[in-house]
Amino acid sequence: MVSNKRNYVYWLKFRKDTGPLLRKFLLATSALFLVAAFLHLIPLFTESGEPDYIFLSVDLGISALFLLEYVLKNKVPLLLRVFTLIGTAIFITVLSFLRSGLLGTGEISLAFIIISFFVFLPPIPSLVFALIISLLPGIFGVLVYFSILSFPDSLGVRNQSPREWYFKSVSLIIFSILSGFLIQRLRSKLIKNIVYLKESRTKILQSNQYIDKLAFYDSLTQLPNRYLFETSIQNRVLLGQKEAFVLLFNIKGLKVINGLHGIGFGDQILALIGKILIEYTAERPNTIVASLGGDEFILWIENSSKTRIEEGIIAFDLNNNQTLTPDRLGHRLQYRVSGIHFPTEANHLDEVIRKLSIAMNVAREESINHIVWFEPEMEKKIEKEQHLKNQLEKAIENDEFKIAYQEKVDIKTHIVVGLEALARWNVKEYGEVSPDEFIPIITKSDLIVPFGKNIFELVVSQIPKIITKYGEQIKISINISPIFFLYPNFNEYVIQYLKEKSIDPKILIFEITEDVFIDEIETIEEIVSSLRANGISVSLDDFGKGYSSLHYMQKIQFDELKIDKSFLDDIAISDRNFLLLESICHLADSLGLKTIAEGIEREDQLLRLKKTSCHIVQGYLYSKPKILFE
Q1: CA-based angle 204:209:213, to the nearest 5?
Q2: What three-state secondary structure class fits 104?
Q3: Residues 6 or more apart in contact with residue 292 via CB below 8 angstroms
Q4: Which of 268, 363, 413, 599 has the fewest CB atoms nearer than 10 Å to its CB?
C-alpha cells in the first residue's frame, strides 16, 4: 500500500515533468500541420488536380490551436492540452475515414492517439481509453454493414467490407495491449528509477548536511568550530562592525573529572557546557560563541565594555545545572577567562587566539579566577622566555652556570655545618636571571635532566675546594628536581660518578620536595633506600608547603626535615604558628630526623627557634648565597 502510494506520488511528479515535453511536442505538431496545410496547395503550382481546401482549413486551424497552447504555457492545464491533442487526432481520424476510408491516415492517427494515452495518462485510464478508441474502425464497420455509410468505388472494395473494418479494430486492440504493456513496463522502471534517484538525492543531501556539520561545527558541543567562527567574524567586519571583545574560555580541572568519572562523563559536561553557551548567546545577537576543541571556547562580544563583561563573567555560573552540581562532581566547576579588544590589540583571528592564549597562561600560572585581559607586557615576557630557553640550551651545553652556596648554621654552637648549593646564571642581555625565572623555563622545556646533571657535576667538582675551606665535617645540600630524581638509573649514575671523582658520598645531602611523592611513592622509597645505603643523606625539603603527609615519613626513611619558610615568617608574633612549628620539631625528633629552619632573617625568629628542638638554621640572618669559586 505504501509502495503504491509512493509510486502514485512519483507518477504525479512524472506527469508534471512531462509538461515541458508536451509543450515541445505541441510546437513540433503545430509545425507539421502547417507543412501539411501547404502540401494541400501544391496542385495550385503543379496544375495537377484541385487543392483540398477542407483539409487545408483543418490543418491550419489545428496548427494555430497547438501554437496557441504552446504560447500560453502553464496557463492551459496539462490534461486539457493532452485531450486537445487527442481530440484533434480523433477529429482528423474520423475525417480521414470519411474522406478516404481505409486508404487514408486514420489508422496512423489512432495509433498516435493510443501511444499518447500511454505516455501522458495514468496506466488504467490510458488502457481504457485506448481500447475505446480502438473500437472506432469497428463502429465504421457497423455503419457500412447497415449501409448507413458507403464509399465510392474509386476508394476500393475493401472499404465496403465490414470485416476489414472489424479487423482494423482487432489490430488496434492488440496494438493497444502490446504497446501499453511495453510502455507501462518501461514507465514502471522509469518511475522506480525516479524513486531511487529521489531517495539517493535525499541521502546525498543528508550526507552533505552531515559533512557540512562536521566541517563547520564541533561534533561534541554542537557549537561552531574555529573555521565557521572566523567566517562569521569576517562577515561582521565586512558589514561594518568596527570593534568587539574576544574572550577565551577554559574549563578548570576537566582532567580531574575525567580521572574520577571517566572520559564519557567529561564529554557529557563539555556537551552540556556547549548547550548552556548556545542558550546564553541565543538571547544575545551581538555575541558569537565557538569551540576551539577540548575544553576551550571562544566568544565574540559586540557593543559592550570591559566593566560589563567582567560583571557578566562574575555572574555567569555553570553550576546551576543539575548535571554540573558540586555534589555530583565532587567540587564546583570553575573556569578561566582571558580577553582582548579587537582590533586595537589584534586584528586577525590567529593573532587574537595567540594573544588570548598568552593571557590564559598568566591566568593558569597565577590561579586567577577573574578575567585576565591581554597586556603587551605579557607578550614581551613570552618572548623573553623563548629567548631565555634558547640561551639555556647553550648555557647547559657550555657549562655557563655558577654555584652560590648559602651556609647552614648549628643553632646552638653557631658553627657552619653545611652549605646549600644554588644555581646562578648570568645572561649578557638581561644580567643576573633569578632561579625563580629560569628554573620553570627549564622544567617546561624538558631540559631539567641535563641541567640537573650539569649542576650536580659542577658541585662535585668544587667539593675538594669546599673541604679545604670549611673542613671535612661540612655537608653539601643539592636540590634535586622530581623529574631528575625519577630519571631511570638516577641513583646508579650518582654513585658511579662519585666513585669516578673519588668523592665520599657522605658529604652530600639531596633535598627533594614533597610533590615528587604524589604518584611514585614506591619508586621513591627504593631510590632513597639505595642512596642512603651508599652514604648519601636525603632531606625532605619545603615540608608543609604543598602535599604534606605523615604517610611519606612513615614509608620513607629521611635524614632531615627542612621546614618551609611559610611556617617560620610569623613565629615571633603568632603563638599558634609557634606551637605548630614546635610540634613539627617534636615529630622530627621522634623519627630521628634533624630539623632545618630556612628563610630566617630576623633575631626575633631566631629567639623563638631556640625554644624548640630545631637543629640547624639557614637564612639571610647568617649569610646570603655566595659564589665561592669562579
Answers
A1: 145
A2: coil
A3: 226, 248, 298, 353
A4: 413
